[in-house]
């Protein structure tokens, strides 16, 4: 790597594979470049990427706000079994990418002032050490997840048996306790590789120089306090925590919001449409899709459903599928006559929809969501009440936060992993967030959060200030590098 430092501080970001990881890193990079005057290079791991992923990368490259560099794909077939959990696979990819990252950093024209990785990239922090660079972790999620992650090595020592078999909620100092059934996926089976990866990650994170979160200061005050309190979680992780969110994808220009979907939305009454989507890879069983179809129909509300082919598993299992699932005609997933009966009130979109643009449309009044953190923030920043339908990863915790702490969502009584949510319950939840008395309360709550969230990102807002502090630190570091280089 050349010793040159460039005309302004240069920071490198590493994105993990998957849309849910790529989007927040891109948005952080853009924000650092546009609002904090940094030169930003984003390394992305070339994957067997979906069309949506390629388009997202392409448009980020066209914008030219950051330099986007694709690292060569890595082959992990000899490293993990083909049926390993997604979590394990991503960890293996991010481990295997280290040599490529090392040589990409070596090849840069300007020395970076820091490396920022996400949760899955925490192992790559050792590459930053080799180049004597500060390193930051961006957790594109909430403080409660960070608190649990930091506390895992302690829970690992004190909890006997599986976490999911515990009779009492798992206590985390200063934070809301976590019910055993809501733990993150890697904690579900302690004998599995993904648990070992999670514990390793938990031990790596506190070695960084600062942690960025995709929340804002007022969203989880109690948890942030515990993370900063040296008698609580602060003793396990002594680095500063910076809430810099909500960083979400910006809306595409109005002229790109044309076509049948937006023409249809324009014709619907304000706040009348329920948007149904389970993220970049969530799938439901066929049985669950049938119940959801009935629930939507019984609710008599309008809806847009991003339909993905059902998972091959039966009954109550739901999981993440990268790509578009099985190719099949949509009609075969639904109750007989469903497509004809909903013709006037429902729109079905296969696989992928322009989610941010849909959620921002005034006709949309509710979101059945798997509670991925990007989707969660997109709902909140557009003031849309949520039906929390968690499927995988940390989504059960997100659902708890949305329903029990923030009051912006309702949730089925059973977990998707434990059974099929019935049509009556679905109908009832839809009515709760749209037409019942409770709907006004939830709508007001989410609108209030929306207003607060928007302000935090403006100049002088808490998230703006938090990211400014990070940027200032990088600038200081760059100035020192400049002096040393001259
Ligand atoms: N997304 C989208 N259209 C879709 C499905 C998903 O634009 O049809 C976007 C969504 O807006 C969000 C991201 O993909 O920004 C999904 O991230 P999230 O954290 O919600 O869930 P994940 O896919 O990681 O489980």
UniProtKB/TrEMBL annotation:
<keyword id="KW-0328">Glycosyltransferase</keyword>
<comment type="similarity">
    <text>Belongs to the UDP-glycosyltransferase family.</text>
</comment>
<comment type="pathway">
    <text>Pigment biosynthesis; anthocyanin biosynthesis.</text>
</comment>
<dbReference type="InterPro" id="IPR035595">
    <property type="entry name" value="UDP_glycos_trans_CS"/>
</dbReference>
<dbReference type="GO" id="GO:0047213">
    <property type="term" value="F:anthocyanidin 3-O-glucosyltransferase activity"/>
</dbReference>
<keyword id="KW-0808">Transferase</keyword>
<dbReference type="Pfam" id="PF00201">
    <property type="entry name" value="UDPGT"/>
</dbReference>
<protein>
    <recommendedName>
        <fullName>Glycosyltransferase</fullName>
        <ecNumber>2.4.1.-</ecNumber>
    </recommendedName>
</protein>
<dbReference type="InterPro" id="IPR002213">
    <property type="entry name" value="UDP_glucos_trans"/>
</dbReference>
